[in-house]
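Worked example (supplementary).
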Amino acid sequence: MSDLASPLPGVAVSGIAEVRELGLRGMITIKGDLALPLVNSTATGVSGVDFPDRGQANYVGERGLCWMAPDEIMVLTPYAEAAGDTAHIAHVLRDTHSLVANVSDARCLFEVSGASAREVLSKLTPADMHPDRFRPGAFRRTRLAQVPAAVWMRDDQTIEVFAFRSAARYVSDLLANAARPGTAVGYY
Amino acid sequence: MSARLPKGGRFLNRSQPIEFSFNGKQLQGFEGDTLASALMANGQQLVGRSFKYHRPRGVVASGAEEPNALVNLGTGRRLEPNQRATTTELFEGLEATSQNHWPSLEFDVGAINARLSRFLPAGFYYKMFMWPRAFWKHVYEPFIRQSAGLGKAPNARDADTYEHFNITVDVLVIGGGIAGLEAARVAGSSGAQVLLIEQTAQWGGRANVDATLIDGADEEHWIEATVDALEDMDNVRLRTRVMGAGVYDHGYVLAYERLCDHDPQDGLPRHRLWKIRARQIVTATGAIERPLSFAGNDLPGVLLASAQRDYLINYGVSAGDRTVIVTNNDDAYRTALMLHNLGLEVKAVIDARAEANGPLPVAAREAGIRVETGKAIAKVKGVARVEGVAICAQVGEGAVLDEIACDVVAMSGGWSPVVHLWSHCGGKLVWDDAQAHFRPDPGKAPIGADGHAFVHTTGAASGLLKSDEILQNAHDAGADAAKAAGHKPKRGKAPTAASPDEAPIEPVWMMPQGAGHELRSKMWLDFQNDVKVSDVQLAAQEGFESVEHTKRYTTLGMATDQGKLSNINGLAILSKSLGADIPAVGTTTFRPPYTPISMGAIAGEARGKLFQPLRRTPMHDWHEANGAHWEPVGHWRRPYAFPRGSETVEQAVQREVKNTREAVGLLDASTLGKILVKGPDAGAFLDLLYTNMVSTLPLGRCRYGLMCSENGFLIDDGVIVRLSEDSWLCHTTTGGADRIHGHMEEWLQTEWWDMQVHTANLTEQYAQIAVVGPDARNVLEALGGDIDLDAETLPFMHWTEGRIGDFDARVFRISFSGELSYEVAVPASQGLAFWNALLKAGEVFGVMPYGTEALHIMRAEKGFIMIGDETDGTVIPQDLGLHWAISKKKADFLSKRAQERDHMTDPDRWQLVGLETVDGSVLPDGAYALAEGRNENGQRNTQGRVTSTYHSPTLGRGIAMGLVLHGPERMGEVLKFTNIGGAPIEARIVSPVFYDPEGKKQNV
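After joint prediction of all chains, the assembly is encoded as:
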């Protein structure tokens, strides 16, 4: 398939932080009993990373695991491999009560980076973005202003934002507005 | 006259003059001034007029409690009414106008109200507006409209921007006086995350004004050193110009930062609303001095004794040349001594107490100041400003003993702790007899989810008025808060302070205590809303015993200052009138915000394009570029129609229907909900959720299903798809996607938690396009791919998946139009490309996109119901002839029992029928079918109503659906329907299926 379109290809703005759209990424939802060795090992096997603790995400390269809920984990994978990985996981878990779905197209992704990245997010989410508590590796489902979203601390100055695809423009506008030059809070 | 002193003013930068204007007059102040201090420095004491009587009013306070000095600030896109001059920092070019006067501040016609004051008593509105009825429209409403509100409402779009900021802290300290600084210092020593906020631009609160030695040095030295120490702590943040606005459950606090009010500029947020989640809160919010109630206490020139000190020390402004001080406590003598030391004249201190022998009164006498004990002010003399006072005995009825000429009256009725933030979330108050005020009851603090206090109070806000007590208490409060937040403070020693002893206050609620009605009707309690002692007494006489009722009846404390100066005095008067103790009467409820905050700050970023999220399908931009006329559906916009050239929307809709029926149309159906339900118990779960049987649906098949609430009413419908042995895909309505997913999870998590079922809302994963019309198959086949689309391989109500052209597709052979129809789901990222491919492949077949209105007409021609048209929350499937979709085999499902209730099985429930106008016109939407006679309210009886109505281009006439009494049994009967502004319209009852009743066209 050659004509793939992420929601807002190439969108980027610069202010107190850099905001850019990240393009497509493979995402697979697994719902099930995360304590089951088969569920655990399937997820870690596909992604090549340790199973993350509550509120955390682990990654290596383009692959990773994000803790979503006590019964839900999300597998990150290259977009082109998502369909195959989904089929593989579903096959391995075919006799285990679980739900496996390819949701690679359901979301939009943004990166907010720079020294004030945390402040940009704190203008929009009630989640605690303090550097002592939202450290690199932290992954949290929350909201940005009026829409659901997840935030992932990739490194100390880089935050990834996941939102639903239909809200891509709204989220992009929100982040650009919150990152307007001169609006740093100077808090963190 | 008020004036600037040649020296002094610790906030001022006298080398930086600032130009501003008041009522068009150009004036000059200095950097560091407030608007109030700058006006006083320019001799402008008259700053506004009161709300009801239009009485002349001057500055009475120096901070957030100011009731009088409210102005219209700015112009055009930056006009804001009711801005307090005492908290408005002066900036270059500031433009202010006074409020509530006509034609001018100095000469005001509305002041005539004052002469009518005996006709405008407490409860005036309630008494007068009852009768006669006609007066409401012609007399009362115009009067209220004329006098309602103080400032002018802006009518231009706000030029500024606003934002929110969310943080979580261990300890939030509100108030940057010495108490707040010490509490923050100790809490900070524990390593806890501490935020200290102060509403003004300066640290230190009142300590700087009422010079205190702290740790043996000037207070200024200690304040500076402490601020420095706090700034050096990595775990502590300090912000000035941030007001604690409200305290809520779970330690949630709203704070209001004013970034640009003192320095307006484009592009930067003017206000920032801090949304703080605090584990522990320390309120160090200080205290407010109370006025005294004597006749004429509202004249310009009467102000609080502490405010007079503030203006002298902070702004180098004297309120006038000759001051009379009136008090019931020792603290006011500080004003006398300060004036004296600055070389200003103090005519007398009128002390209501029988004797005054504390260190401060003694010092005053030693300085040669006249002190009159046991005395009161009988009345203030003057019309537009203070010209003198008449003195009487406090214990008498007001017989004048002496008159003193003066131009300032500085009053002090004692201090009331600012308990607002303590009280917002349930902190209780206790009446302190010795200090004559309500203060927080530390034993009854606001309690968090863990059963422990989450608010601590300290300093003057706790009722402590001496610096040494304040510092010790703040030291402990900071430590307690840090400990409660799970940290260990490093306990040093609290700083010590030296303050003189003060003799006890003597409560004085009225001056003189035996004042007659004439004097009482000149004693102001609420300056802004014009409520006087006589009004509260009248309310009490009329039986208003509850303080909350009295407040509303008299409007005491209901103005923009929320009664910061008036509440305690008012309820003291009420308690006296009722013969009850003050604590028995109690206070009114303290509600956030502490002082008004801007609407912009509340909205934050939510304005313009960010006002509300707009959800877009993958094809949204194409629709926009191709002239879509939009219809809002939930947060989505869906194309209603795609007008071409000079076409009207109506013409476009008719064309789209015809083209789809005769050739082929495309519909963006991506917004429909798509919920995956999977698990060993998924079939059983869905059987409980839908009214019809779902578990028996064979693999590869689709079925239309209905969902009802447990009360029996239809809540959603859609096509259910059997994906695999243990998984189903449930389509919902556009608006139902999130709601139905939540509905499923609620039942799974709360009632049927033992079922092995998982759900996932996959709505956003797919772009879904309906290819509809006689050439639908041809268009899809033209794209190629590996799916057999012929009628035998993929019959009606079947589905399959594979590739159409280059696209990964799931194809559902379902039809909401009655035509041959395929709904094709592709991954959302392929949606736009697929849409374009269909347009290209369909070109030779005359393909056109169609919108929601064409969809509606086609479904109505087929008699298909629409959730939200045929249903309104009171309709059950049986009303709509959908008995076939209600399982009789299933033991139970949501709504089964509800639908067996008497009312639900009543044969008189209105039933769905088709309606065909006799003259071919279109029935009005929502029209009622008329029945004979009238009901007990004199309204015409009805026997049905229209639920959907359209002009059908297919049939060339108006068609409608409606619910009609015994409708299905009355085929062929002609009913009359209401037609507002015209004669009733006749329509015949027919089958709701107008088009292809055998269903041949969709099944080819």
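Two points are worth noting when inspecting this output. Residues 12-23+106-178 of chain A form a domain with the Gyrase A; domain 2 fold (CATH 3.30.1360.120). Chain A has two domains: 12-23+106-178, 26-102.
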